[in-house]
Specification:
α4 crosses α11 and α17 runs antiparallel to α19. β3 and β4 form a beta hairpin. A two-stranded antiparallel sheet has the order 1-2. The chain is built from 23 helices and four strands. The protein is mainly α and about 525 residues long. It binds a DNA duplex (15 and 15 nucleotides) through α23. Belongs to the bZIP family. CNC subfamily.
Length: about 525
DNA sequence: CCAAGCTGTCATCAG
DNA sequence: TCCTGATGACAGCTT
């Protein structure tokens, strides 16, 4: 599955996108799938490690003379992190399914890593170092895959990867420095090709966090939108809880991650998430999980779930060739580095909100999703939000989640529901306003009609009054009393009985003297 | 630069 | 008591 994930993916994608001639640089990807291409021989690894040292020195120099360090490239921290020990230091924790032996097959690795990623609680499932390796492997793999997509011009910029060590099957035994070097190389290739690859590897970014090397990140602004749970939930990962639930993306020992700590990671994850290979990687990872869990159908995940949604959005937002979606915003500085900030010092990642409607939409749904990704929440956002409470709890019970993950899931659910509620509320409010406005119009029209009718009735009344007066005068003028004198209207009035007869009735005295 | 609108989020209340 | 919806208020972003 791992090999298929790493190799079939680009093979499937490239022909569709028509970006790479079959067998050209995608063939470079297939190289990575050669099983056992890189034996974790200690000497060889050491050699690679030394080569990495040299390369790292070069890298440091390069970083020193350019603005690249502002890019928060994870490579340095990845290498310098104390979590990376000697080559063979990557040792699984007890109970970790990975075969610690260097000869462990790729199949074992893939099966135990990817298939168990969501099956088992992350903390005790994957030692952080191994997680880093997984992350590095994935990202590096996908990085090469990305380059392969980019095409020969960009692929040539990549330093040649260590011979045949790009095979997923052979990556697992790689030592941390080797992986770090590979990360360097992938990073270098991306950098030279203009890709803002701050993601590089999950391990690198996490190490920066762990080692305190992380400067205020470019994407801080993106996270400043009061997106943090302000006390509505327990800290995402207190040192205690996080110890049990070390983020698989985090470096070894980086168990103190809380929201604030997670933000840089999320930023980088977000940046990396914009890379199609990462999107598809995560997509596939999750999809595989779905297949394993048989909770959702294949289609149900590929459809509107958050991850797939984002991937689709991003892919839509990326015109072929892929780099065209990023390079115009990135540009390069005079030293050939990357201008990660485009205006006013405000950090703008390659997917700044206003870049395009698609990207903006992606951003709008991505904050919680980024957090979910950061904590490896094994449920898609939409499930978290939309499942009925019973199903939701049942779903949760299928996973062993730590406090941080549970808190995040519940926050996501609460926020998601509240967001929908707020949208409904506003929609309803607008509808009420529209309705009231229409009602006002109707009432005004009715008022006009009533006014007109009143006016007409008044006219009719006046007309009737005049008629009455005329008739009265006529009647009184035609009547004579016993003395032959006409009845005075001042002294008499006409009254009509129920039977229709009309009588002449004397008026009552006004002064009441009688 | 400012104002209006939009949107997400939080706090709170009610069912 | 918990869950959920409704809604006011606030902040950030976009137009």
């Amino acid at each position: 599955m791992c090999e298929s994930a790493n190799c079939i993916l680009p093979a499937r994608r490239n022909p569709q996108q028509g970006l790479v001639p079959p067998g050209s640089y995608h063939a470079g990807m297939t190289m990575m799938a050669v099983p056992g291409a890189l034996q974790p021989d200690r000497d060889r690894v050491t050699h690679l490690h030394q080569g990495e040292l040299e390369m790292d020195i070069d890298w440091q120099e390069l970083m020193a003379i350019t603005d690249l360090q502002e890019l928060e490239m994870p490579a340095d921290a990845t290498y310098e992190s104390p979590h990376y020990g000697p080559p063979m230091q990557v040792m699984p924790q007890p109970g970790f399914p990975l075969d610690p032996s260097p000869s462990s097959s790729s199949l074992q690795f893939c099966g135990s890593s990817q298939s168990t990623i969501f099956k088992r609680p992350y903390p005790d499932m994957v030692p952080a170092a191994s997680c880093q390796r997984i992350g590095s492997l994935r990202n590096m793999d996908s990085s090469f895959g990305h380059v392969a997509q980019v095409g020969p011009s960009y692929a040539r910029m990549l330093p040649a990867p260590p011979s045949s060590n790009s095979s997923p099957s052979s990556m697992q035994p790689l030592t941390a420095p080797v992986m770090s070097m590979l990360d360097h190389m992938a990073m270098t290739g991306s950098t030279e090709s203009g890709i803002h690859d701050t993601m590089g590897t999950g391990s690198g970014s996490q190490h920066r966090t762990a080692t305190g090397l992380c400067k205020p990140h470019l994407q801080d602004d993106l996270e400043s939108d009061s997106g943090l749970s302000l006390g509505s939930s327990p800290p995402l990962a207190s040192p205690g809880t996080a110890t049990a639930g070390g983020n698989p993306y985090l470096g070894a020992g980086d168990n103190s991650m809380n929201y604030s700590d997670a933000e840089p990671l999320e930023m980088e994850l977000e940046q990396a998430r914009m890379r199609p290979e990462f999107l598809e990687l995560y997509h596939m990872d999750y999809h595989q999980h779905q297949l394993n869990q048989c909770h959702m159908s294949h289609q149900s995940y590929k459809m509107p779930t958050s991850y797939g949604h984002s991937a689709n959005i991003q892919q839509q937002a990326m015109p072929p060739p892929p780099l065209q979606g990023f390079l115009p915003e990135l540009g390069t500085n005079k030293e050939g580095g990357i201008n990660h900030s485009t205006s006013g010092g405000r950090a703008e990642g390659p997917y700044e909100k206003h870049r395009s409607p698609n990207v903006r939409m992606d951003m709008s749904v991505s904050r919680d999703q980024r957090r979910a990704m950061a904590l490896k929440i094994p449920l898609p956002i939409e499930e978290i939000i939309n499942l009925p409470v019973d199903d939701f709890n049942e779903h949760l019970s299928k996973y062993q989640l730590n406090d941080a993950q549970l808190a995040l899931i519940r926050d996501i659910r609460r926020r998601g529901k509240n967001k929908v509620a707020a949208q409904n509320c506003r929609k309803r409010k607008l509808e009420n306003i529209v309705h009231l406005e229409k009602e006002i119009d109707l009432l005004q029209a009715e008022k006009v009609q009533l006014t007109r009718e009143k006016s007409e009735m008044g006219q009719n009344l006046s007309h009737l009054k005049r008629k009455i007066i005329e008739l009265s005068v006529e009647v009184f003028g035609s009547l004579r009393d016993e003395e032959g004198k006409p009845y005075s209207p001042e002294e008499y009035t006409l009254q009509q009985t129920n039977d229709g007869n009309v009588f002449l009735v004397p008026r009552k005295p006004v002064d009441g003297s009688d």
